[in-house]
Write a structure and sequence with these properties.
By secondary structure, this protein is α/β, with parallel strands linked by helices. It is 28% helix and 28% strand. An eight-stranded mixed sheet has the order 4-3-2-5-1-6-8-7, sandwiched between helices. The longest helix is centred in the middle third of the chain and has 12 residues.
Length: 186
């Protein structure tokens, strides 16, 4: 049985996007990127909303050129090897291999994926993750807290969601970023 993990780069004030809808402020430095890549190795399936999927689809054809870093090549290989499920009412055909589209977020489907998974599953996108947290599906929150205040923008965790969290791990990086790993008590 696999765990469902929500991993997000978040500003100190809890945002995943700035007020323009961009996440560039949270691009990890080399140290953090290497750490996150290592955490992606055991992931067998990614669950995405359409917008997050379209962002991550970059790795289908990029990241492994001769001018790319070893870290980018490593991440691209890991991402391509995993299955992807995109929950979207508007996406007709996936642009990447090992990808299927589901029209609506389905808690039973996610439970079945978790029950039959030999590896862990991640869920990407704040809105999709918020739905999964509200349904009691998320087992862990992995928050990569970037030392920046955005003031406005999309929240990493939606309002109205209540859960008790147990801190499992904390890592501080030289650039001031902090990784926090929590188990979600249902």
């Amino acid at each position: 049985m696999g765990k469902l993990i929500y991993t997000a780069n978040v500003s100190l004030d809890g945002r995943v996007e700035d007020e323009r809808g961009t996440p560039e402020w949270g691009a990890p430095d080399e140290e953090v990127f290497g750490f996150l890549t290592d955490h992606e190795r055991p992931i067998g399936t990614y669950l995405y909303g359409r917008r997050m999927y379209e962002t991550m689809a970059y790795w289908e054809s990029q990241g492994d050129g001769p001018d790319d870093s070893a870290a980018n090549r490593d991440f691209a290989r890991i991402w391509r090897a995993a299955d992807k499920v995109v929950f979207s009412r508007t996406l007709e055909t996936p642009a990447t291999a090992r990808t299927r589209v589901e029209r609506a977020f389905d808690a039973d489907l996610v439970r079945q994926l978790k029950d039959t998974a030999a590896t862990d599953i991640t869920i990407g996108g704040a809105e999709l993750a918020g739905q999964a947290i509200a349904m009691g599906l998320v087992d862990e929150l992995n928050l990569v807290v970037v030392p920046v205040l955005l003031g406005k923008g999309k929240r990493a965790l939606p309002e109205g969601i209540k859960a008790r969290l147990e801190l499992l791990d904390e890592i501080r990086f030289a650039g001031g970023t902090v990784y926090l790993r929590y188990r979600v008590d249902s």
